[in-house]
TrEMBL record:
Originating species: Pseudomonas alkylphenolica
Residues annotated as binding Fe cation: H136, D138, H192
Biological process annotations from GO: methylation; oxidative RNA demethylation
One of the record's GO cellular component terms: cytoplasm
InterPro entries recorded: Alkb (IPR004574), AlkB-like (IPR027450), AlkB-like_sf (IPR037151), Oxoglu/Fe-dep_dioxygenase_dom (IPR005123)
Protein name: DNA oxidative demethylase AlkB
Binding sites annotated in the UniProt record for substrate: W74, Y81, R82, Y83, D140, R166
Cofactor(s) the protein needs: Fe(2+)
Entry EC no(s): 1.14.11.33
Annotated keywords: Dioxygenase, Iron, Metal-binding, Oxidoreductase
Residues annotated to bind 2-oxoglutarate: N125, C126, Y127, R209, I210, N211, L212, T213, L214, R215
Length: 218
């Protein structure tokens, strides 16, 4: 029987955790109870540190809009990628990492087996229809024993979860509003990316997808 038929006859409970690696888990809808608290807090963060299109070291302007909150924020420019304690746009500290987000990320990390997650950085990505994120590894952080916790809001996207080399095949993981994905341990350095966002209208976020990735960077 083909895989698609199996799925039809054995639908998985959509709210059950789905392990996508030995130390990587999708938590469908895990953030939904916090969304109403999260959105106004995120609006404040973005008012203080607006989304911007950073330039890669190679000189290309990134299509996805980026900002950060937390003690450290991920930045890219002609000099390279790094974590910075200040927002280069304002020369001020990044906005504080909201408690509601930290608490959510800690609970998600613990479910994935990471009991001592100490996020000090949250990269916020804003995708519009057509925007994609090419395959990359998250390796600008210091401590790879700490996981990445990703929270998706707004329009759904297809997340590509690959292997430890760029060439390995990728799994396609649907990420919807409220989903949380955690990857760490042996899966921490897996290549990942996002397929071009399909147009759509999300009731809360319109034609946007917002992704928050919490990390321990320093
Ligand atoms: C990232 O890899 O930084 C973001 C992933 C995502 O948008 O789901
Ligand atoms: Fe990433």
């Amino acid at each position: 029987m083909m895989q698609t038929e199996l799925d039809l006859f054995n639908p998985q409970d959509p709210l059950q955790p789905q392990w996508v690696g030995n130390q990587a888990v999708l938590l469908p809808g895990f953030a939904l109870p916090q969304v109403q608290a999260l959105l106004p807090v995120l609006r404040e963060v973005v008012a203080q540190a607006p989304f911007r299109h950073m330039v890669t070291p190679g000189g290309l302007k990134m299509a996805v809009g980026l900002t950060n909150c937390g003690a450290l924020g991920w930045v890219s420019d002609r000099q390279g990628y790094r974590y910075s304690p200040v927002d280069p746009l304002s020369n001020q500290s990044w906005p504080v990492l909201p408690e509601v987000l930290l608490e959510l990320a800690n609970r998600a990390a613990a479910l994935a087996g990471f009991n001592n997650f100490q996020a000090d950085a949250c990269l916020i990505n804003c995708y519009r229809p057509g925007n994609r994120l090419s395959l990359h590894q998250d390796r600008d952080e210091r401590d790879f024993t700490q996981p990445i916790v990703s929270v998706s809001l707004g329009l759904p996207a297809v997340f590509l979860f690959g292997g430890h080399t760029r060439k390995e095949p990728t799994q396609r993981i649907g990420l919807r509003h409220g989903d949380v994905l955690v990857w760490g341990g042996e899966d921490r350095l897996r290549y990942h990316g996002v397929l071009p966002l399909k147009p759509g209208a999300h009731p809360l976020l319109g034609n946007l997808r917002i992704n928050l990735t919490l990390r321990k960077a320093g």
